[in-house]
Amino acid sequence: MILRDSQNSDSDEAVLIINPNRNLTWQQSKWLFLFFTFCCSTVAVYFYSIGAWLVLPFAGLEILLIGISIYCQSCCAHSQQIIRIDSKHVRVINSGRVDSEQCFHKSWLKIIRNRDPSGWYPSRLLIGSHGQFIEVGKYLIEEERETLAHNLKSAIEGI
Amino acid sequence: MTTTTLNHDEAHHHDMPTGWRRWLFSTNHKDIGTLYLLFALTMLFLGGASAMLIRLELFQPGIQLLDPDLYNNLVTNHALIMIFGAVMPAAAGLANWMIPMMIGAPDMALPRMNNLSFWILPAAATMLILSFIVPFFPGGGTQINTGWTLYPPLSVQVGMSMDFLIFAIHLLGISSVLASINIIVTLLNMRAPGMTLMTMPMFCWTWLVTAFLLILVVPVLAGGVTMLLFDRHFGTSFFDAAGGGDPVLFQHLFWFFGHPEVYILLLPSIGVLSHVIPAFSRKPLFGYKSMVGAMLTVATIGMVVWAHHQYTIGMSLGAVTYFMIGTILISIPVGLMIFNFIATMWRGAMTFETPMLFAVAIVLMFTFGGLSGVMLAVVPADMQYHDSMFVVAHFHYVLMPGAVFGLFAGVFYWLPKWTGHMYDETLGKIFFWTNVIGFNITFFPQHFLGLAGMPRRIVDYNMMFTEFNVISSIGAIIFGLSHLLLLYIVIKTIRGGKKAESRAWEGAKGLEWELDSPPAFHTWTVAPQIK
Q1: Taking the mean position of all CA atoms in its chain, how far away is CA A105?
Q2: Which chain B residues are within 8 Å of A32, Cβ to Cβ?
Q3: Is B522 inside a domain boundary?
Q4: Which of B188, B209, B217, B315 to substitute to test the interface with A, most A CBs within 10 Å?
Q5: Does some domain include residue B42?
Q6: CA B283 from chain center: how many Å?
Q7: Per-residue pLDDT tens for A21-34?
């Protein structure tokens, strides 16, 4: 989980960018998939060449499954949440497979930290107003979520 | 971009899991790990019961309890249940529990797939058990008397129970592939910031290689058993010489899976040892990089030496020479691993708690099993030993210490972490000694039986083999019953006992020991610090 905080001195806008933790870039994910494809295909083609052609569909299905798994996990790992705070509004932009944006009026904005009474689940940081709330920083660990709540409060009060 | 509004209540999807829903719908790696381990324990007793019946039958020459087909059906089921039902799920259970905690990840990369990969297993186990039971019913056909290798033409001729077995193998394969993909994606993409591949815990490395091996070999087995199914029901002749096919082709398909499967079973336990031995020697693992290199070498060579199981089929001299040299070469990286374990212990402040006792026993007995493996790799010698009890003794000396004892070591090492209680050390040690002594009494005499010419997979034997068989069967009773003590220790530890600290063992290192014992339902709410 990565939390980046940037404030442009020329404008009155604060921007918070939140990404989930990831070790592989898109490029590396593609190479990983190609590596698996090469290895599985080599084995399947060898057995096809000695008459066991029924290995091919199983290898194909497996490669497809590996591709879907790596793609889904990479999409999830490469999604990000951008919080833009200007003088009047707070915008939360979720980018991933489907982009979405929510806009709240700053004057009415509430920041809520919901803690799970059982302690089984991490807390949830919600921002919103007029009964409409959205979760921010779901990728973050507890400590970072606390920092985000503090940063949001400071940014809203400061600008 | 679309503008949407998310309602607070709609967004609150974190229900508290309770009762059966917690387990059936679980996406939590710890719960799924527990399910895997409980499943494996159940199957261990089922597979163990069939082994006890086999040894009871072999207590005396002649046919006492089992007719020849039922005897071979038990042999088949014992192997399949132990390999696919007990050892692999137990290793997957350890992986599920420990990998996210070791790499500082909140869960597995694909939690729903994780749930699916476990819940396929009970269905597969049911099919597997049905394959054993079906012949007892009217119209159920003949018993599966092929052994776990399922060689045609015998496997084409047996009754409908073989179809159950083929579908069970498919389900088990799907489960293994799903689990492997999940583990690979988790290890490659979800390590804590700062944890590189070459600083990853060794258990994670062993599972990365194991998962990769599974992905390579499972489609080949799936293709092989499907071809068998086609030969049985759809008029094809893949393995029928009369129709232009070749039964030896199935052997190649099977052993291309079957030989790497040995490393699939072994490597997770090698990973466990890489944590247990340093912890109880109070020294870092000797030669981390060489261990990784040795493991990769074992996996690579292990993929291309499968036909050493088939020396007697009449391969060309060039082919058998290649497979012989390749097989013997594997002993070099395996020897390096053993050397690293001994070097880790060297001048360490060693203590001998149960996990360490198992670790030392593994180093000794696995080396012994490896040496008899080198004997079997030599073509002229193997021609004599092939299909004898010597082979049975060899692979039990490899797989019991190499895989099962490693898993026992892992269970005793991490049980305080999982349950929050220390297990009863005295009982643990009693279990270790009865288990190891029972094991050696069972399998050591089988070397002599094999060398003297007793064939495997035959219900009866010559009178001259009686003494060693009696000793072996007495050992099997001690060995089998000792597992009841394991069950008692596990239940006792779950129910209570001395409170375990976060770092249950003085010399234990790793992120998992930074967490509470037992860890919270969701872990890593504080960022792990990777130095």
Answers
A1: 25
A2: 188
A3: no
A4: B188
A5: yes
A6: 28
A7: 778 888 999 999 99
